[in-house]
């Protein structure tokens, strides 16, 4: 039975989360005041923390940094909880030390699954840490547990990283018996790209083995091994110092784990969170993030940035007469044509329905944007052949420019939307730039 602490200022979220944790058979406690977290941890044992990102007084990111900087709490796993889905936020939390990320509104099965995985991982690390000690204990661990695990595990000398012991999985991966491995530096026992010690050579500061020696702490690092016929491969390497009673490290336990499937699933889920399922284009969340990036780039380069809003004229008629399947095919083809019209540095996104957007970086002149808009109108104006159906559609385009038409996301998108409705009012199948004078006429 684990002790799990929920830190969230939303009482409904706290009640739901604690109930789900209790249903799993664990003890649940909570805090609604973030400033009390450290004192709470000092007062009793906590096995897992569910920490809300957006907290009053002290925000979740700051608390996570404080916990990971404190040796007393650094090993307590933390799952971040938030209603935000920005890619930067997720990456930041993982970089600081969060073990997982849960989005609001909370889905019960997802929360329970992620809590279970976090606790199992913690138990796995604790079980390994209990084996830290002298070489005899490491040997006993190797004989009883190492060979029952799917991970490649090896015990190395601290001085030269030579092999002292290795489990069967490690021996099979490098294609050598234990007698052939003993005394050889780990990184010299094989050169294949998926070697358990890859890419460490033990001589550079970035090497995980060197990092463990210098810090005296457990380290872990994930490596991408490039490509093969079946795609990317990922390995997670964990190094744990084995210390004598005088606290000096004399051996290192290295665990190499194939995490390809878990990483690919994580990448897929992250992709789905920021991309439209039908077209594969960036979705609304990623679109706004790209605008934010583009504004920063424009401020540095002193160039303009343009936002385009697209709306297919009378798209509803296609759905009503030919069905939604044909409508979906049309949207996919529209996405392809839009993407082919812009540069790789630009972004085409789907906001929903038949609404698309574009972020254009490094704009030198207004005529450059005007030429692109005409190019897009011409491309979309060509007949679409979808199976037995021949479809003609047009598009209306609204355009706003940074910094002329606004200096923030809200203003720029609102003005591009106003320009779109001016284009519709002007007879459709045309592009209109935002202007304060025209905008006062309202939507047509």
Describe the fold and architecture.
A hairpin with a 2-residue loop joins strand 14 (384-386) and strand 15. With 444 residues, the chain is of the alpha/beta class. It folds into 3 domains: 3-126, Response regulator (Rossmann fold); 135-260, Beta-Lactamase (2-Layer Sandwich); 275-439, Alpha-Beta Plaits (2-Layer Sandwich). Helix 12 packs antiparallel against helix 13. It contains 16 helices and 17 strands. The mean pLDDT is 84. It has helices at 11-23, 37-43, 60-68, 87-96, 108-129, 135-144, 168-174, 178-181, 208-215, 260-274, 284-301, 315-322, 324-341, 366-381, 409-425, 436-439; strands at residues 3-7, 27-31, 48-52, 78-82, 100-103, 152-157, 163-166, 219-228, 231-243, 249-258, 304-312, 347-352, 355-363, 384-386, 389-391, 395-402, 431-433. A 5-stranded parallel sheet has the order 2-1-3-4-5, with helices on both faces.
Helices and strands in order, then pairings?
Blueprint: E1 3-7, H1 11-23, E2 27-31, H2 37-43, E3 48-52, H3 60-68, E4 78-82, H4 87-96, E5 100-103, H5 108-129, H6 135-144, E6 152-157, E7 163-166, H7 168-174, H8 178-181, H9 208-215, E8 219-228, E9 231-243, E10 249-258, H10 260-274, H11 284-301, E11 304-312, H12 315-322, H13 324-341, E12 347-352, E13 355-363, H14 366-381, E14 384-386, E15 389-391, E16 395-402, H15 409-425, E17 431-433, H16 436-439
Parallel strand pairs: 1-2, 1-3, 3-4, 4-5, 16-17
Antiparallel strand pairs: 6-7, 6-10, 8-9, 9-10, 11-13, 11-16, 12-13, 14-15
Helix pairs in contact: 12-13, 13-14
